[in-house]
Beta-ketoacyl-[acyl-carrier-protein] synthase III
Amino acid sequence: KFGVGIIGTGYYAPEKVVTNADLEKMVDTNNEWIIDRTGISERRIVDDNIATSDIAVKAAQNALADAGVKPEEIDLIIVATLTPDMVFPSAACVVQNKLQAVNAAAFDLSAACSGFVYAMSVGSQFIQSGMYKKVLIVAAESLSKITNWEDRNTCVLFGDGAGAAVLGPVEEGYGILGVELGADGSGAEFLHMPAGGSLYPATLETVKNKMHYIHMNGNEVFKFAIKIMGEAAYKALEDAGLDTKDVDCLIPHQANIRIIKSAAKRLHLPMDKVFVNVNKYGNTSAASIPIALAEAVKERHFKKGDIIVLVGFGAGLTWASCVLKW
Ligand code: ACO
């Protein structure tokens, strides 16, 4: 008998910093508004010649080093992203090749900002069933490439980055204790990139109509996030047979400090039990939870035996939460 848990974490943030002051020069916005409404001070952006797989590989290498695992020991790579290098092949296949993880199967998982937790749940099943021993989960995004830098409603929110975790068998009673996954496709239109797929393939018209950018109804997404973050975490805790008072650290999707504070309040958690880095990176979609997790590990925020809750929401609409015993 064994558990399935995280045996290594890593992240990578591009070097280029875009501050709120930089954005003031690009759109009609100001530092006070952005900080007050979102909690974001700056975000990282990849260079034009960098693709999502490039930053995914860096985060993956850091996670493999942390776990002490060689690329050829990986049985499966799941990449969670909404900004793959191209529609096909999958970003996971590109990452597999760049890592030389020659024994790994590879596929992408599309669940937007909930993608990392979805991927953890999927990956852990292969280990639990005995089919695989080591699964690499990478969540990486180059949202800057699908951001309309003339739209102040969205461009202030997003950033680029990558986070990764190696899953493997752990001591019984440790690792993943509870999971909650969910989706409500009726909210698809609130957050989407309309073109570039089979519905609206790329044409001069779709480009002219700015359909290859993130389109968002911020108020609707906000309302959904406020409701679902607490609910999802409660359900994952219930699945684990635990209560909010057992929680040592909450790692929420880093979309907006107001959404994070509201989730903490619903879960009756003081903010010193909540890991926050949205100020430095903005919303990096699927990458946000694993970047926060890897930073929290690096900064020694938790010790063996601590109960950690990951919770996120995103386009789809989707939500996901996972309870871990570290
Ligand atoms: N600078 C200055 N003013 C702005 C800006 C800006 N960057 N953006 C919007 N405004 C204006 C609006 O135009 C509006 O002006 P008006 O009243 O004259 O029309 C005013 O500010 C208030 O706008 P609201 O949308 O009501 O502002 P709100 O307080 O709701 O905050 C925000 C907007 C930050 C977008 C919020 O709705 C939010 O965080 N929503 C969730 C977004 C999110 O998390 N999305 C990602 C999900 S994860 C994924 O899958 C990628």
Notes: Residues 218-240 form the longest helix (23 residues). Residues 29, 33-34, 37-38, 112-113, 152-153, 156, 191, 216, 218-219, 221-222, 225, 255-256, 283, 285, 314-315 surround acetyl coenzyme *A (CB under 6 Å). The first strand starts at residue 3 and ends at 12. The chain has a mean pLDDT of 97.
